Amino acid sequence: MSTLTIKNLHVSVKGKKILRGVDLTLNEGETLALLGPNGHGKSTLLAAIMGNPNFEVTEGSIELDGKDVLAMEVDERSKAGLFLAMQNPVEIPGVNSAEFYKAALNVRREKPISVFEYYRLLEKAYKEMGIPFEMSQRNLNEGFSGGEKKRNEILQMKLLNPTFAFLDEIDSGLDVDAMRVVAKAIEEEQGKGKGFLVISHYARLYTMIHPTRTAVMVNGRIVVEGGPEIVTRIDTEGYEWIRREYGISLEKLEKEGSQVSLGTCSTKVLLNGDKKE
Amino acid sequence: MVKEDLENVNLTMDLPAGEARSLSLTSLNGFSSRKITLNLRRNSVFVLNFADFCAWEGELIVEANLLEEDAEFTVHCASITNVNEKKRIQVNVNHLAPRGKSLVSCYGISLGKSLLRFDGCSYIKHGAVSCSTRQEAKAILFDEESQGFCSPALKIDENEVVASHAASVGRVNDDHLFYMTSRGLKKDEAKRLITMGYTHPVLAYYEEREVEALLKALEERV
Lengths: 277, 222
Fold this sequence. Notes:
The complex is a heterodimer.
Chain A: E1 3-13, E2 16-27, E3 31-35, H1 42-50, E4 56-64, E5 67-68, H2 74-79, E6 82-85, H3 97-106, H4 115-129, H5 146-160, E7 164-168, H6 176-191, E8 195-199, H7 203-209, E9 213-218, E10 221-226, H8 229-237, H9 240-246, E11 268-270
Parallel strand pairs in A: 3-8, 3-9, 6-7, 7-8
Antiparallel strand pairs in A: 1-2, 1-4, 4-5, 9-10
Helix pairs in contact in A: 4-5, 5-6
Chain B: E1 10-15, E2 20-26, E3 34-40, E4 45-52, E5 58-66, E6 72-81, E7 86-95, E8 101-110, E9 115-124, E10 131-141, E11 147-156, E12 161-171, H1 174-181, H2 187-203, H3 208-221
Parallel strand pairs in B: 1-3, 2-4, 3-5, 4-6, 5-7, 6-8, 7-9, 8-10, 9-11, 10-12
């Protein structure tokens, strides 16, 4: 059985401390619900596990079956069995979705997947996720709706078959039907013994996927751990009881959201160091 | 369809009524600034392909005049700039008669401190009814100091037409690379996929032996 072990993890973003000593263990076959108020480090934890270069690990360790995850490149973490379904999957112009998935599959195989096998695998995954197969020919996430991007993340999870999957607000932007499709896909992978760490603000998803454990992150630390009943309590009472019962006041830790600029009509320019479009 | 290399710096071609031609340009053996003028007569079809994967500086200007009814003009272009190169590719299409069709599609990659510029204008003259035109230009920048400019314009003096244009310039950034590497690809492979995505569409219009040489040139540039 594989185990992911996080000890005393400290992570900073642009010099600002976000995680302040996270201790957490995730075993294969478990589904851990990670809750916490906005801006307290949940997504930072997932990004740090996966090796996002914008998140600097200043202290602590992450081990996968005793192997130092922090010493691995991002692609090595993926090939070691870690998968992050991102909260805001980026749009990547010019990269065909089907070509990308095939390349991601092939780096895990000794021999490249045959065209026929790949076509069958891809078609099955699209069907199961309720995504029109034609979308496999679109550029990666480009022009996808929020819900399509989230389903596309789960589709990749199914294709790449990780040992541990980290789902960052996978339910945001999903309508009720899409939520069922995603929950069913997660349940199928749970049945295969995969480990999940799932961030969501809403009990609805957790009701569908039945987490085995719950952890609550406040001020960059795990302050409460327990069973699935904690999800229900937070859903009905919020986080006030943590302050009351544990004497922990809520700070605001994470950076503000990144700036977004809009282009105009059909002329676009990107010049030296100028991030505006 | 006729496929030929272009030797002259400035070229004017008149396409007689009912003829169909294609011109496939490459920059494999170097390339210099040039202007191509095309005059299309009734029911003629002209397809211009430009796979530009080599080092050169300057501009390619294409001026297509759809002089008579039902003429069709298409451009497929993929270009790469690197180091300090500055390239400009401008395609202007003048719809001067009814029912003409045109498509201008330019894709490019800018690396290093280079500048890649796509511009051009589709003009539809008053009286050139039932014409359709599209100008699209997309560029992706790989490095911090790479520059891109995409401005596919429309000038329309007739009401009964279908016309569209699209432009995008994006930078390959850490988020793109993180996303792709988080699925198991190495950074170099991720960059290669992006490059291929931007350049492959034009390769569909070249013969197999030419594609091999073009891909080799492409690998050397990126």
